[in-house]
Amino acid sequence: MSRNGPLALIFHVLVMVFMLAPILIVCVVAFTPEGYLSLPTNGLSLRWFRAIANYPEFISAFGDSLWLAALSSVIAVGISVPAALVVARHHFPGRNILCALILSPLMIPHVVLGVAFLRFFTQIGVSGTKISLILAHVVIVLPFAFRLTLSTTTGLDRSLEQAAISLGASGATLFRRVTLPLILPGVVSGLVLAFINSFDEVTMTVFIAAPGATTLPVRMFLYIQDNIDPLVTSISAALIALTVIVMAVIEKLFGLERLLAGEGGGRS
Questions:
Q1: Does 83 lie in the same domain as 208?
Q2: Which of 19, 48, 137, 197 could lock 72 by a disulfide, CB 3.0 to 4.6 Å apart?
Q3: Residues 201 and 140: beta-carbon distance below 8 Å
Q4: What is the total count of domains within the chain?
Q5: Left, alpha or beta for 219 (phi > 0: left; psi -120 to 50: alpha)?
């Protein structure tokens, strides 16, 4: 086994610092006692974390972001699983067109998608509703769920399914007991990635957000247009801490490697 040389290690460290520095700076600024964006040179303070409670619109927007991301990612996975199985197992006219159609939102700027969705939903009379918000988010996260699910279905060992069929397994039993466990890592990975992209989406959502269901990224974007205080950094730091806690709980209960890579994911 060859080891990385000192230049490679230095390069890796610089890349990690480059990636983590903005996150660390945001977390540090969140503890400033000042009323403007600055490093806490005069001591640490929880002033801006306590201030979050004075803005219930941020708390409600967080709830809206959670249910929207959860619902849109589940729907996207529900579409991706049968679509990936069909694409991976069958060759039919329009197969490549179907794949290109599902993956096309990756190639279109979200600003363009936002304007297009706004125009479309206005024409059919659902603009500004939660239904339009859900449909738009399903479209933009579907490529992530589909691509990861397709990667696991493409290399699926069909002999296990054939053995189950020979033993008398029904279609539903075959899928639930054999197929789904085999493709579960791709499904879970697609679900997680779809959830993250939906929760973090702001560019397209600005155009179609419903007055009664504004997501947290959009609410933060609108806030920083008129304010320069560290409230948004404290919200960001709280989200980062919450993410770390959730990942730690999942690792403790299920194991991230087992959940995302499968039973043999860590074996060489």
A1: yes
A2: 137
A3: yes
A4: 2
A5: alpha
Rounded-to-10 torsion of CA 242, 244, 249, 251:
160
| Residue 182: count of CB within 10 angstroms of its CB | 17
Within a domain: 9? yes
The parent domain of residue 229 ranges over 56-264
Two tokens at 162? 């054939």
DSSP string for 75-111:
HHHHHHHHHHHHHHH---TTHHHHHHHHHGGGGS-HH
Which residues lie below 8 Å from residue 151, measured CB to CB, with a gap of 6+? 186
* Cross-strand bridge partners of residue 236: none
The tens digit of pLDDT for each residue in 50-102 reads: 999 898 999 999 999 999 999 999 999 999 999 999 998 888 888 899 999 99
The residue count for the chain: 268
- Cβ neighbourhood burial of 218 (10 Å; 0-12, 13-18, 19+): buried
Do 34 and 143 fall within a single domain? Answer: no
The pTM is what? 0.85
DSSP 148-209: HHHHHHHT--HHHHHHHHHTT--HHHHIIIIIHHHHHHHHHHHHHHHHHHHHH--TTHHHH-
Q: Does residue 103 share a domain with residue 28? A: no
Which residues make Cβ contacts (< 8 Å) with residue 62, sequence separation at least 6?
Answer: 216
One-letter amino acid for residue 256 of the chain: L
- 259: in domain: yes
Whether 51 is covered by a domain: the verdict is no
